Amino acid sequence: VLLTNCSVKQGHEIADDIRNGVRQINIVSAQRQLDISTSIGIAAVTSETEGIVGVMASAEIACKTAKEAGRDRLQVIEEDNTTLVRRSEEVEWIGRVQEALRDDLFELYCQPVLPLAVDRHSAHYEILVRMQDEDGTVLSPAMFMPAAERYQLMPLLDRWVIHSALQRIGSCWTSIATSNPVFCINLSGQSLTNPGFLTFVSDEIRQMGLPPANICFEITETAAISNIDEATEFMAGLRNLGCSFSLDDFGAGLSSFGYLKDLPVDYLKIDGSFVRELKSDVVSRSMVTAICQIAKTMKLSTVAEFVGDEDTIEILRLIDVDFVQGYYIGEPEPLE
Q1: Angle at the Cα of 14 (from 10 to 20), degrees rounded to 5?
Q2: Is pLDDT of 278 > 80?
Q3: What pLDDT is stored for residue 199 in this prediction?
Q4: What is the pTM of this model?
């Protein structure tokens, strides 16, 4: 809604009238009355406004903030509001992520996930993604991933990672097949519910000619539980193809053990907060021990991430963890 010759105060009053008006609308579906609410973002058009794109972005940021604050409310964009400033920065990152997808500016890295008993398991390698800045600087996911997740760009990014990773691994598979490596690819919760994503992944695996048994997909515990039905269906489809699944950040959620019986996973990746405190905190050690005991009962393998020294490795060996990962084990390196 564009209001001409209108102050922010007047605009706020008009927006509130719209919000109240929408609440009066009666919608009936399947014999049920539906309550309707509206979230509204307000941005002023002034001589300092950076064009139509800038003012539209500001209004959208304010609207999203109103939704996240509980919906059915108004939010005026304010330059000194740190939350809105952060949202504004994220909007800028949307364009940069989209540009990187168009111009192939993402890069694949990998980090070793090594078995503590080499006679029982072969090495795994987690595929990681980085982004090239305009000046060639490599940017970490912490800089661009929050915007990609907030603005629903993760399915596009996941598709790029899967296609690129399988293509590059497939091109040299004959030279590395004897070591039987397993490559682990992260999937977002958004991709689990994205229409056609399961078909896309299945087709990519078949086209690249990689053995499905050497591909493991990692999903976070939170994403799996938040989309339990879709996650289970997605995982079952790829496991039937021969792929495996790892549950990332395990133990960080509130319902970890309860959902394990329903999720078709092969690996539990123990949340790094427990592993980091293994030497100094008795509770963390007990948690890791409990996770390993449950995993052994369910015939699942365990992975400890954020391993930082030899003492931690020895404790993990005593607890009977299967795999270790961390900068002490090996830092991420370009996949090439």
Answers
A1: 145
A2: yes
A3: 95
A4: 0.77
Residue 323 vs residues 108, 184, 187: alpha-carbon distances, Å = 22, 13, 20
Residue in the structure block whose two tokens are 């990519």: 204
Q: Is the dihedral of CA 327, 329, 333, 335 positive or negative?
A: negative
Q: Does the structure show a pLDDT above 90 at 117?
A: no
Phi-psi region of 299 (alpha: psi -120 to 50; beta: other; left: phi over 0): left
Given a contact cutoff of 8 angstroms between Cβ atoms, the answer to whether 277 and 271 are in contact is no
Check the CA dihedral 62-64-65-71 and report its sign.
positive
Q: Higher model confidence: residue 237 or residue 262?
A: 237
More confident residue, 264 or 90: 264
DSSP for 164-189, written as a single string? HHHHHHHHTHHHHGGG--EEEEE--H
- Residues 120/89, Cβ–Cβ less than 8 Å: no
* Paired tokens of 142: 């912490």
DSSP-derived secondary structure for 198-248: HHHHHHHHHHHT--GGGEEEEEEHHHHHHTHHHHHHHHHHHHHHT-EEEEE
